Amino acid sequence: MFAVWSGINESSHQITTIESLLEKDSIDRQSVLAKQSDYGSAAYYSFHLTYSTPSAFAFSAMGQRDIYPWKHRVRMLAIEGQIYETDAGNPELSFLGRFDFAFLVSVLMPLFVIFLLHDLRSAEREAGRYDLLVTTAGRQQSLWIARAFILCSTLGVALLIPLIISALITQVSLVSMSQIVLVVIGHLIFWALLAFVFSASKLAIKQSSAQIASVLLSIWLVVTVLVPVVSDLAIDEMVHSPSGGDIVLTQREAVNDAWDLPFAATWDEFLKVHPQWKDNTEMSSQFEWKWYYAFQQVGDQKANSLSQAYRSATLEKDRLAGLFAFVSPPMLTQRLMSSIAETDTLAAMRYEQKVRDYHQALRLFYYPLLFTESDFDLDEMSELPQFSNF
Length: 390
Fold this sequence. Notes:
It holds the Pfam family DUF3526. It is built from 16 helices and 2 strands. It has helices spanning 2-33, 39-45, 79-84, 91-96, 101-117, 122-127, 130-136, 140-169, 174-200, 202-205, 209-238, 244-258, 263-273, 289-324, 329-340, 345-371; strands at 48-51, 71-74. The chain has a two-stranded antiparallel ribbon with strand order 1-2. α8 packs antiparallel against α9 (174-200) and α14 (289-324) runs antiparallel to α16.
C-alpha cells in the first residue's frame, strides 16, 4: 500500500507542479510581451514551459523520470544548451531508485517469496513431521504445490489489490492494467518456481532452512544487484558517448566566438539550413536581432553531431540494457513496468524530441518577422506556437 501511495504522491506532485508552472508561465510571458517594442526582444525575454505529464499509470513505476528531466523553460536561444543544462540530481538516490510499486515487485517481492517458501519442506523435517505428512498425503507433490500456491496467491493478491484499486481511481486503461498484472504474476511465478524447485532438490534435502534461505538469497543478490551493476559498467565500456557538458560547451563556444567573427561567417553557416533568407542578410548596424538568432542556430549546428551521437548512444545503451535484463528477472520486470507506464528511456527521448520540435516551431514563427523587419504587433504574438499542440 505504501509503495502505491508513494508513487501516486510523486505523480500527483509532478502534475501539480506542471499545472502551477503553466499558469505562471502564461502570466509571465504576457507581462513580458506587453513591455516589448520589437520581435527580437520579445523572443529573447519570453520563456516557454515544456513538460512531460506523467501517464495515468506512472505511479506504478516512475522509471527514468528520476533521471531525465520532465520539464524545461526554453526560449529562442540555442536549444542544445537549454536541453542539457539541467538541475543535477542525487546520483546515489538515482541508483537506488524510488520506492514505488515497481521497486516493491522487482526487488522486495522475491524476498517475500523466499521467506514464504524456503522452508516449505525443511521446516517439516526439522519438526519431525515430514514422514508423517508424506505418508498421509494422497499425492506427495500435490501437498507441497497446494501449500506453495496458497502462500504465493495470498502474496499476489495482497500486492495487486492496492494497485488495481488505484489504477481504477486514476482511470488507467484496461490494457495497461492487464499488462502490469501479467508482469507481476510472471515475476511472482518465476521466484515461486525457483524457491519450490530448489527446496525440493537433492541438494536441499541435506540442508537446514537457514542454509536453503542463504542459497536463495545469494541468487537474489546476484540477479537483483550484481547483474544490473556489472551490466551498467559493461555497457559504459561498450558504448562511448559524449557528455551533455561537451555538447553545451561546444554550442556555447560557437555562440561566443560569433561575436568576434565577420558577419559573413555566421550567414554562410546559417544559410546552409535556411537558404530562403539569403536576400535578407544585409546588416545596417553592428547588431541586429536576425544576426543574433542566426548565430544561436549556428551554435546548435556546430553541436549537432555531438548531440546526435549522444542520443544514439543513449538509445544503444537502453537496447543493450534490455538484452542484459534477460539474465536479471528483477531488471526485466522494472523495464517492462516502466515501458507500460511510459516512464522509460524511450519516453524521455520522445519528450526531448517534442522540445526540439517546439523550439524549431518558435524559430519558424520568429524568423519571417525578424528577417522582413516587420513592425512589432502584440496581436501577432497570439499566434505563438503552444507546446500543448506538440
